[in-house]
Specification:
Distance between the termini: 4 Å
Low-confidence stretches: none
CATH class: Alpha Beta
Structural class: alpha/beta
Radius of gyration: 17 Å
Order of helices and strands: EHEHEHEHEHHEHEHEH
CATH topology: Rossmann fold
Shape: globular
CATH superfamily: Alpha/Beta hydrolase fold, catalytic domain
Helix content: 25-40%
Number of domains: 1
Strand content: 5-15%
Number of helices: 9
Mean pLDDT: 96
Number of strands: 8
Strand order of the largest sheet: 2-1-3-4-7-8
Length: about 260
């Protein structure tokens, strides 16, 4: 990036059962580096954990999330670098297909349906209490504590993990169905048209990620432009937003942003 090039806005997309608060340790970092940051809330996610579950939440598809995000991205003064975590990493790819952007950062990305990978044992173990129930795709879902601790908040202090678990909210069973069982979704809502992604991207994953393991991140990287970058954070699980992991993560993203020009 030359001195004359303005820094692109950064567009952060949170993941399933979560909200933009996951970026609380990242947004100030990038603002201090001169970036304008935007972290929209997915539809019906602007709630507290104990609030009543919105009636229409369970009906939302990945396509509905993308439509809302694209509308927000188009309000920006310039095409953004899109940054997403977990389901947000999949949504980031889908949004990038549908709108102008200047780069892509995928953190522990959920699997695109057209990667055609078999579900990992660890992902199935994490999601099993939900997906074993017939009709979960028509209900709002929330991951039980034991599975959240094992599959998402592993390899971090248990007291910190418990704080994060207490903040989880409900999410769409339909969206989870599209990600977890993509071959059964006639709309192909989790399929990414990789032929339309031309900007270099960065993919980051923890080596101990259980719900979106490193095989998914590696397969995603192989689909992206050849000048894309791939990084693993040794010993980290799926949740990348606690210290000291988040400081390492922020620096990796900053290095990618600096290398774009």
């Amino acid at each position: 990036m030359t001195a004359k090039d303005p820094k692109p806005p950064l567009f952060f997309i949170h993941g399933m059962w979560n909200s933009p608060r996951c970026w609380n340790n990242s947004l100030p970092w990038f603002e201090s580096k001169g970036y304008t940051v935007h972290a929209p809330t997915l539809p019906y996610h602007d709630v507290a954990p104990d609030d009543p579950v919105p009636d229409d939440l369970a009906k939302l598809r990945l396509q509905d999330y993308c439509e809302a995000l694209i509308a927000e991205a188009k309000k920006l003064d310039a095409p953004p670098v899109i940054i997403g975590h977990s389901m947000g990493g999949l949504l980031a790819q889908l949004v990038a297909v549908g709108t102008l952007h200047q780069g892509l950062v995928l953190l522990s990305p959920a699997q695109a349906g057209n990667l055609h990978l078999l579900p990992s044992v660890s992902a199935v173990k994490t999601l099993w209490p939900i997906i074993r129930r017939w009709g979960f795709w028509s209900r709002a879902t929330r991951l039980p504590r034991e599975q959240a601790l094992w599959g998402i908040f592993n390899d971090m202090p248990e007291d910190v993990a418990q704080e994060e678990i207490d903040r989880l909210i409900s999410d769409s069973g339909r969206a989870l169905y599209q990600i977890a069982l993509p071959w059964l979704d006639p709309s192909h809502g989790s399929w990414v048209d990789y032929s339309r992604l031309s900007h270099s991207a960065l993919v980051v994953v923890g080596t101990n990620d259980r719900i979106t393991p490193i095989e998914v991140a590696r397969a995603t990287t192989r689909k992206l432009p050849k000048d894309s970058s791939y990084r693993e954070i040794d010993g980290a699980g799926h949740w990348l937003f606690h210290e000291p992991v988040v400081s390492t993560l922020n620096q990796i993203i900053e290095n990618y942003l600096d290398s774009r020009h």
